[in-house]
Amino acid sequence: MASPRTERPGIGGAIPRFSWKGSLAVLVVLGLTGYSVTGTNFNIVELIRGTGAAERFVSEMFPPDLSAATLRATGTGILETFQMSFLGALLGAVVAFPLSALGTQQISTVGASRGERLRRAVPYHLSRTLLNVFRSVPDILWALVFVVALGLGPFPGTLALAVHSAGVLGKLYSETLEAVPSRPVEALAATGASGFQTFLFGRLPQAMSGFTSLTLYQWECNIRSATILGFVGAGGIGQQILISMNLFDYPKVATLVGATIIVVLIVDRFSAAIRQRLAY
Amino acid sequence: MQGISLENVSVGFGGVKALSGATLGVEAGEQLAVIGASGAGKSTLFRALNRSVALGGGRVAVGGHDLYALPRRRLNELRRRIGTIYQAYNLVPQLPAGVNVSLGEVGGMGGLGTLRTFLAGPGAGLSKKVGAALEEVGLGGKAGVRTADLSGGQQQRVAVARLLVQRPDFILADEPFAAVDPVTTERVLQTLLHLNREGATLLVNLHDVEIARRFPRIVALREGSVAFDGPPERLTEDALAEIYAGDSSATADEEAFDLSELRRGLERSMRLTEGRDGVSSH
Fold this sequence. Notes:
- The complex is a heterodimer of chains A (280) and B (282).
- Chain A has twelve helices and no strands.
- In chain A, α8 runs antiparallel to α10 and α9 runs antiparallel to α10.
């Protein structure tokens, strides 16, 4: 079927080439780019001029300090980071699970009375709000809060990771629970199963492999985050990196950073392999 | 025990009427086949019978209870007496077959019983029932197999075993044979008829008119209301053409399509599957 547009010779074809919406979007992106470039003093020339200093910094890192004392300190830092990230993910998962269960929208509200709907809405919104607070505050800010409250060390760092992980996992868990195929769940509800029962036997088994995969991924993220938390005094290898930087001990920094990269890569690979198995 | 009655029932999905003014009475213990073109409202009718859809108007009574007026707790009590099986089985694929079967009794478990079953599996009494039910549908020894690893026909038999554990007073079977082979069809049908002889009211939603003819009463839906209600003898080819006329999936030329031709084709395709299911088990 020919549209009227094609019958008019000259301007345009069957595909419209100009649209106000498209042009507006381009203008908005361009405008925001300019606004942000001025706001951040973004300057390529300065970046190129700065390469000299960066080169000096990098060349001073080599050769890396591989003395026994440094290696021992690196090992301790890495282990601490590992422990923080693992415990953070685990505690986060434990807190996230019940909250996500409450924060999952029920399907069968057919014919439910207003009071019933309200009774369901209250825990839903409470848990969602709590999870949003946990998640929207970055872990490094949580670390600052806990360092102030509990002092320096890996314990406040672990707590920071746990709280942030709980927020992230809770949201992802409840999204997984809501996204499982609903027919088996409805079939259970149709034979008189309560909300709790349809959750346990209908939603949860279908979401379980997703949960495991998400938790592993959160652990991966925690390893990366845990290396930074040391910068605010919350333990782990980051604390050692900061101290060595302040002492201008760049060879030691090189060892610490190199070890961090290796560990992050190993954990990434390991977790990705397991997650791939789960996804079959 | 009272049966099922629908009075002037309407159900709409965003402006599209799936049921409009459907009225139907079913005696307790009766067996009834429901036929109709796709989009005629068959599945919606079944969903209205266990309050899985919102009602636009009318009244649905099951076992003497006004279904849509019941509070949640009473509704669940009534639903425990309504058993359902579906075209797509609708089992929980990750659970072992035996656990899926035991879920026929889940409505009757208390909070603690539910937790115990979830953590430790079904208790001794229930396990025995589950074993017997699986034996009855020819799946003895499959209790521990992950449901997703069973074939489609086997999954439908698991669904029937769940029904056997539930022992409902009303059975709603929504296209139970649409995705299974002829052997499974016969087997499932016999089990359903057996439950009916024991007193359960049986409603089966069918696309296969030949199977429907084996029921003493056939109800046909057309555009959301009852277009035919009577014994199979009265269901003439003319009446069938009327029921399936204007099938949303058919064009004007195909309106007077030859049903026997379609049936032959179906049988042929069923034979080709050699007893395996026509639908993958995901």
